[in-house]
Specification:
Number of domains of chain A: 1
CATH architecture of chain B: Orthogonal Bundle
Structural class of chain B: mainly alpha
Strand content of chain A: under 5%
Shape of chain B: globular
Order of helices and strands of chain B: HHHHHHEEHHHHHHHH
Radius of gyration of chain B: 19 Å
Strand content of chain B: under 5%
Distance between the termini of chain B: 15 Å
Number of strands of chain B: 2
Largest sheet of chain B: 2 strands, antiparallel
Oligomer: heterodimer
Mean pLDDT of chain B: 91
Radius of gyration of chain A: 19 Å
Distance between the termini of chain A: 44 Å
Low-confidence stretches of chain B: none
Helix content of chain A: over 70%
Number of helices of chain A: 11
CATH class of chain B: Mainly Alpha
Shape of chain A: globular
């Protein structure tokens, strides 16, 4: 029983790490540009499929390095061509646009790579269980947790220590003032969008290695990411991280006791949070409304 | 032209077209069931627009109430009692109660945050319908039930036998629902909603209980969307979880935008275009999702005011 529970807590932690990685990207874009990027799941799937196509040529680690970057470049282009004209308009429009984009990306993946799920082989080094008692501790899972930790650490480093990151944070608070101070806000938003999409692509490659790869992989991960943002508190990146891990573990634990409520539990958590702390766990009142 | 006359002429055209739709739908390549679907989706989009266009609140989760109405009706007929009016009443009640509860939880949020919470809450009901397969049929949907004959005393309405009869039944309920919404918008309450849309802070300073108004608007919208849901499931005698998934919510919003969210009839026009387009594209290509997706993108980038918005602008300049 303890082992089963531990297994599911660990599993939940991993799933939560995906949610968090995806939700962090969503949050970045939402905080700076006020855009709910519905296509985030589509970009995640795209990152995974690009990696899948690269696998035979550059191997797993090569694909892990290259695919998210390529996805991010596509993100930059999409932002420039489609999303930029919508800044300053009702958020409804960017929501609808990315919604349509999500359709196109999912269907495009189906068109190019097929509707069936495809195998996504991971290197043998990472597949062996590290311990016979705790069979679930495979190298890949540990590797994934470590990599997510590195990515999150890197993100917070960029945001807190680099000039770009400081501008992004400042822009989140007051974009107009940042613009007046001579920062090119257009480029800032563009890069910020690319950064968010990079995280989605990375999450995609990692998720494909664990869950297998099919066109709907992104859509199944995006809703929990929304919940993670709401639970953690809109406008707070640490909150988003916490929210993602929390709902991952919660649904992992629920799987043990009440499997059919695996998804429901995160929405129950969201309801409770909205009831007792409407701004979210780490959200600040009055920031983003 | 006098504004009032123009307004009435508009209404006359709309009702004239709706009343005669089964007559000419076949001639233009459609079929009666498609006509019913246009009206049902139109009702859903107009109900959403009560919230979106006339209260200025962006809900992206109306499919939840649509689906609740649909399942409420189907399950009533299947498990409770085979009666069409009862199915409609139960479906609407379920949608209304859900909208009341969800509305109370999210009413303090605005803008993007509101949109996001409605999206997330919308999914709750999807997962319930998807997972609870002993009752809802899960992914396969709720089957083995049919809309029922209505006994009016002096005559019987055999809704199942005739698609045309069901069309007029739907149209009658559509007329009642739309009439209620129109008179709500004309009432002081509706004017207050518009004031909130235009300037929420000012409305608040005037002493208007803004949250309470938005909540009522949310419940009204949810209830009528649920009505559309009951009619939709009885149209097909079937309902599956896709009726309450997020993409359905997005479809309602694009219908409202496409037709013009600042006008009362706009969403109906949007629904007509969308439903017919979807029907046509999905019969032509397997990749209909891409076509619909590109359609979304094009509407947002090049046609954000919608059909009636553009027409109105032409008329005033």
């Amino acid at each position: 029983m303890t082992q089963l529970l531990l297994f599911n807590v660990f599993n939940g932690l991993i799933v939560g790490a995906f949610y968090a990685l995806m939700a962090l990207g969503l949050s970045l874009i939402l905080n700076l540009s006020g855009v709910i990027n519905f296509a985030h799941g589509g970009f995640l799937a795209l990152g995974a499929y690009i990696a899948y196509s690269l696998l035979p040529h550059v191997g797993f680690f090569g694909a892990l390095l290259i695919a998210p970057v390529l996805t991010a470049i596509l993100g930059l282009v999409v932002e420039r061509l489609m999303i930029r004209p919508l800044y300053g308009r009702d958020p409804l429009y960017s929501l609808l646009l990315t919604f349509g984009l999500a359709y196109v990306l999912e269907d495009g993946a189906r068109y190019i790579w097929g509707a069936q799920s495809v195998p996504f082989p991971i290197p043998e080094v990472l597949t062996t269980p590290l311990s016979t008692e705790f069979f679930f501790l495979t190298g890949y899972r540990l590797f994934m947790v470590a990599l997510v930790a590195v990515a999150v650490g890197g993100l917070f480093f960029i945001l807190n220590k680099t000039r770009l990151g400081m501008r992004i944070r400042a822009g989140t608070l007051d974009l107009e003032t940042v613009s007046v101070l001579g920062v090119n806000v257009r480029i800032l938003r563009n890069l910020n969008f690319g950064l968010g999409i990079y995280l989605a692509g990375l999450a995609g490659v990692l998720a494909a290695g664990m869950l297998g790869l099919e066109p709907t992989i992104g859509t199944s991960l995006i809703m929990p990411s929304f919940v993670a943002i709401i639970v953690g508190g809109l406008g707070s990146l640490p909150g988003t991280l916490l929210g993602g891990l929390l709902i991952g573990v919660a649904s992992g634990v629920t799987t043990v006791f009440f499997p059919s409520a695996t998804e429901a539990v995160m929405y129950i958590m969201m309801g409770i949070v909205l009831l007792v702390r409407p701004r979210g766990l780490l959200g600040e009142e009055g920031r983003v409304q | 032209m006098n504004a009032l006359v123009k307004h009435q002429a508009q209404n006359a055209i709309v009702w004239g077209l709706l009343l005669t739709m089964p007559l000419w739908m076949n001639a233009v390549g459609g079929y009666t069931e498609l006509a019913s679907r246009v009206i049902i989706m139109g009702l859903a989009a107009m109900s959403l627009n009560f919230l979106l266009g006339f209260t200025g609140v962006l809900s992206f989760g109306q499919a939840a109430y649509f689906g609740l109405g649909a399942y409420g009706a189907g399950m009533t007929i299947k498990f409770l009692y085979p009666s069409t009016p009862l199915a409609i009443a139960v479906g609407m009640a379920v949608g209304m109660i859900a909208a009341m509860i969800v509305g109370a939880l999210i009413i303090k949020r605005r803008g993007v945050y509101f949109a996001m919470v409605t999206i997330a809450f919308g999914q709750v009901f999807y997962f319930i319908a998807f997972r609870w397969n002993t009752v809802t049929g899960g992914d396969d949907g709720l089957t083995q039930w049919k809309r029922q004959t209505i006994d009016l005393g002096f005559t019987k309405l055999d809704l199942l036998a005739s698609d045309t009869l069901y069309y007029y039944f739907v149209l009658a309920l559509f007329a009642i629902a739309v009439g209620i919404m129109a008179s709500l918008i004309r009432s002081p309450f509706g004017r207050t909603l518009i004031a909130i849309r235009e300037n929420e802070r000012r409305a608040r300073f005037l002493g208007i209980p803004v949250d309470q108004h938005i909540w009522i608007s949310f419940v009204v919208s949810g209830t009528f969307v649920a009505l559309a849901g009951t009619l939709y499931s009885m149209l097909q005698n079937f309902v599956d979880p896709r009726a309450l998934r997020w993409d359905q919510s997005g479809n309602f919003v694009i219908m409202a935008v496409l037709g013009g969210m600042r006008s009362f009839w706009g969403p109906l026009i949007g629904a007509a275009i969308f439903v017919v387009l979807q029907d046509y594209v999905s019969s032509q290509t397997e990749n209909w999702m891409s076509v619909i997706g590109i359609f979304f993108v094009l509407v947002v980038l090049f046609f954000p005011r919608g059909v009636l918005g553009v027409l109105k602008r032409r008329a005033t300049t």
